[in-house]
Write a structure and sequence with these properties.
188 residues
Amino acid sequence: MTRHVAAVFALTFLAASAEAHGAQGTSPGFIDGLAHPFLGLDHVIAALAFGLFAARSGAGRALAAAGVFLAALVAGIAWAWAGMDHAAIEWAMAASVALLGVALIWSPAWGAAALMALAIAVGAINGLAHGQDSAALGATGGFVAGIGLGSAALLVVAGLVAPLIETRLHRLAGVVAVLAGGILLASG
């Protein structure tokens, strides 16, 4: 089973080397959207860290939190496409990655309201970042459906892996997220 988990993580990170957007002069569609969440390490780490953290609250609450995360992601994309252009969105994305890492390192499971608030915040920040990336390219509804499915896949991977790994590996994932967030903040 450990080999399967390692293979899933390896494939997730190998996917990060693929091209994020469609060919020059074309509007990004479903396949571009499906690949998009895997292409930015900040997005990959945010979704995986959120999924690991949400899984601490039990399967039912984690599933609800994933649904809220995905709804907030789509709302964030819509907000960006409607003209919301936030200059600090990459900073907010980096900060959310670091905060998710801190939560994985030190925090126990959260109550439902706090977990849902975190899902809204992280999902909307991810959505705004994805939306700003794709708005100028003329992305379509297919692109949004693809991003939703790709993000859901990352959340499912995290939810499936969470019960298989020990607490210290959750903490290690938190350290990775904190370091990645710090590097992104410093480079931003």
